[in-house]
Amino acid sequence: MAKLLSCVLGPRLYKIYRERDSERAPSGVPETPTSVTTSPSSSWDTYYQPRALEKHADSILALASVFWSISYYSSPFAFFYLYRKGYLSLSKVVPFSHYAGTLLLLLAGVACLRGIGRWTNPQYRQFIAILEATHRNQSAENKRQLANYNFDFKSWPVDFHWEEPSSRKESRGGPSRQGVALLRPEPLHRGTADTLLNRVKKLPCQITSYLVAHTLGRRMLYPGSVYLLQKALMPMLLQGQARLVEECNGRRAKLLACDGNEIDTMFVDRRGTAEPQGQKLVICCEGNAGFYEVGCISTPLEAGYSVLGWNHPGFAGSTGVPFPQNEANAMDVVVQFAIHRLGFQPQDIIIYAWSIGGFTATWAAMSYPDISAVILDASFDDLVPLALKVMPDSWRGLVTRTVRQHLNLNNAEQLCRYQGPVLLIRRTKDEIITTTVPEDIMSNRGNDLLLKLLQYRYPRVMAEEGLRVVRQWLEASSQLEEASIYSRWEVEEDWCLSVLRSYQAEHGPDFPWSVGKDDMSADGRRQLALFLAQKYLHNFEATHCTPLPAQNFQIPWHL
């Protein structure tokens, strides 16, 4: 009876991974609790095949889940309609509650039938036995056997906890349960006394901003967190996860962040290969509808690096909702996991982000200054201009206030706090982070990210002459136009390097630099500005969602 109950309450099983010929874990690397090897008894090489009873019951419950999701999103309109029609009176609500209770009992019966179907399937019984044994004792052997199954991730045991004693040694004080530290926006009206009357006046605007951010705003900003989209993408996600596990020897792990969210991660270890770049770990931060199963993780994998991918809170196996605080909390535990469980030093970690993933990437760079490098692909400087682009102009005040208070993705501000090497990749046909049309390359917010970074690091070089010539270079939409501008100003790269190296040797590496003082000619500042812009930003002739080829994944320049 206990086994039958476990089958009724157990998670949905998707796939049993095929048997591999030999252990692929590299020698000399400490085995982690989530290392994926093949159970000797595993002989199934296909998606899990449920019996007819389980299959049909699963279909009914999945359909009910979709209807519930649709009802949830449409509930405000439904309540308004029912109120206008007079259906919310007590005489109408009581019969409706009876119907709802009957439906719930029927769904509970379907769930019991599904459990009976699972109980008659030896594959599921073997899986549930391994899962229960792992929850009782998370030994390496139990975790090794559990890793051969792909199932509903909420039942996966936690592999790494943010409060593990060794995980806070190198952090700056460590996060509290309220979350890690974020840069807070300055008040819109500085110097205004924060009296009780002013607070009362602001209250309606604050309530409106909160409601917009937690309903429409968050779902527009992170559509990947919408359940219906995840349901539609589920076959693709399962296929991508199977490829990572079976072909790349990926190791899945669940990390518990300080806010209680569980973060779904996938690690591919290349330290045992002959490729030297395998000693470096690339942590990938996906876009607003990206998942590690099918996202930008493929680029550093093809380039031969060790890779750690993770899903935003509320995406696929990760729990929670993707607000900036939750995003930063998730990124913190991912970096801690890479350092203290996977055994990578910060100097061997590269942060690679695509699109909106630039927020967590720049937060990690700001919070872990010893990280080796940061690569931002198709990212932007600030969310406000992009939010204003898609909303009515009459909403400008509400949109700005909502973003600043609840969805403040201040990438440029965070990136300027990082002292290490940075590479920005600009898509010349980007249709997402341009504020006008894709053909208007000067409206690409990647330009603003570059200018803000260079102006912070080299303020004297990026004075009037330098800023003007870099803007001209950014207007180039092809490599030929770039080369033409570069040659027009006769940039002497050897001279630029000697000037920068001399300054670094005399004043040290910390930014901002005062190189380019008044004793340098305007022509010299132009040359330095163009030289630095070309080193910090590379163009990629593609649209926003085109996968970045492995040959375009390059380590950022540094002296």
From TrEMBL:
Keyword entries, A-Z: Hydrolase, Lipid metabolism, Membrane, Transmembrane, Transmembrane helix
Cross-referenced SUPFAM superfamilies: alpha/beta-Hydrolases
Domain AB hydrolase-1: 281-408
Single GO cellular component term: endomembrane system
Residue numbers spanned by region Disordered: 24-43
Location of the Phosphatidylserine Lipase ABHD16 N-terminal domain: 3-152
Gene: Abhd16a
Record's subcellular location: Membrane
Name the UniProt record assigns to this protein: Phosphatidylserine lipase ABHD16A
Membrane-crossing residue ranges in chain numbering: 60-84, 96-116
Role: Phosphatidylserine (PS) lipase that mediates the hydrolysis of phosphatidylserine to generate lysophosphatidylserine (LPS). LPS constitutes a class of signaling lipids that regulates immunological and neurological processes. Has no activity towards diacylglycerol, triacylglycerol or lysophosphatidylserine lipase. Also has monoacylglycerol lipase activity, with preference for 1-(9Z,12Z-octadecadienoyl)-glycerol (1-LG) and 2-glyceryl-15-deoxy-Delta(12,14)-prostaglandin J2 (15d-PGJ(2)-G).
Catalytic activity: Hydrolyzes glycerol monoesters of long-chain fatty acids
